Amino acid sequence: MENEKKCLGCGIALQDVNLLQEGYTTNLENDYCQRCFRMKNYGEYQVVSKSNEEYLEILKEVANTKDLVLYVTDVLNMEENIEEIRNIITNKMILVVNKIDVLPKSVKEEKIINYLKNIDSNKNGINFEEVIVISANKNYNIDYLLKRIKYFQTSKNVYVVGHTNAGKSSLINKLIKNYSDNTQELTMSPLPSTTLNMITIDINDHLTLIDTPGLVDVGSILNQVDEKMMKKISPKKEIKPRTYQLRKGQSIVIEDFIRIDYVEGEKNSFTLFMSNDLKVKRLLNLFNNEELYDRNKITYNMKYDEDLVINGLGFIKIVDKGTIDIYIDKDVDTFTRRSLI
Ligand SMILES: Nc1nc2c(ncn2[C@@H]2O[C@H](COP(=O)(O)OP(=O)(O)OP(=O)(O)O)[C@@H](O)[C@H]2O)c(=O)[nH]1
Ligand SMILES: [Mg+2]
Fold it and tell me: Angle 168-179/142-152 helices, nearest 10 degrees?
């Protein structure tokens, strides 16, 4: 029979029977499972793969309520698939754009907000009540977010949803810390699928937050790399944009997983917005070097002032029009958009 007691860190039912299964703890008196305990205390991670079917069931449950929903997205990974969740949930929703601290300070918040409002109005579906830019880690704009939650909430309960790694649990921990006497601490980690089940957290008499496991982004580069690289890919500090001036026939190679050939156009400027820890090199003559040509090739005809977005990694701002070939794992999504910056 399933134990009633749930891990306070990830929401999974605790059990003391099978070391290899989720929710294991040596003692059922413990509040956290062994996996959470290790992540919190030793930074030792254990990747769990979650099926999105289970996740969709959770979203349907949320949709059955009339409660306010916070849709949390990572500023580096916000995109098209915002619809994916909105198609299921018709509740009132605030779009929370997290991790703004990773973008250079010169980036204007209004630009991001306007960009998202524009995607929003192109759809016939639900509009967001508001788009709010925050940083859970830096405690930025959390006071304002709480004010708006109070304004829009329809009951005590407010659900927190979004893709895995967006920082949902980090945001809730900040709200607990700032506004509650509760000592619970949700487990956070740079790896996907940290939260395993819904977790209910009482902030005060008027507000209960419900954390949920994140939707796994199947097109993210995080699914194609090892644990060490996952950590390298998630920026911890403000990104220092790296600009490369490329002429036709030159290339950029990122670590050992992406190659971008500039095949047609005038001299052009490519600015990378991605983790400072990633190794990038420029090839001066693409005809001399076949590195990564075994990957899937996609050709983009870039228009003036567009970004090439690589799901899970970040984006490249390309100033002028021109043709590029990108070589990347076939399961990683890429797309272009009007420049964010
Ligand atoms: N730079 C930066 N990193 C953040 C911020 N908020 C969260 N993170 C990091 O993002 C990673 C994921 O955070 P979590 O809170 O575990 O994300 P989650 O959305 O709960 O993830 P799942 O439980 O897997 O769905 C962690 O490495 C956090 O430290 C932020 O404001 N800025
Ligand atoms: Mg979480």
Answer: 90
User: Which one of 10, 26, 45 terminates a domain?
Assistant: 45
Place of tokens 């420049």: 339
Which whole-number Å values give the CA distances from 264 to 78, 204, 244, 300, 322, in the listed order?
29, 59, 16, 11, 5
**pLDDT value of position 288:** 84
> 206 and 270 share a domain?
no
Residues 187-238: pLDDT tens digits?
999 888 999 999 999 999 999 999 999 988 889 999 899 888 988 999 989 9
Q: Is residue 291 part of a domain?
A: yes
Contact, 165 vs 222, CB < 8 A? Answer: yes
pLDDT tens, position by position, 19-63 = 989 999 999 999 999 999 999 999 888 777 777 888 888 889 999
Clarify whether residues 40 and 125 are in a common domain: no
In this prediction, residue 174 carries a pLDDT of 97
Domains held by the chain: number: 3
Q: Which of 165, 176, 193 to mutate to test the pocket of ligand 1 (most atoms within 8 A of CB)?
A: 165
Best mutation site among 8, 170, 178 for ligand 1, i.e. most ligand atoms within 8 A of its Cβ?
A: 170
CA of 161 to the centre of ligand 1 (A): 13
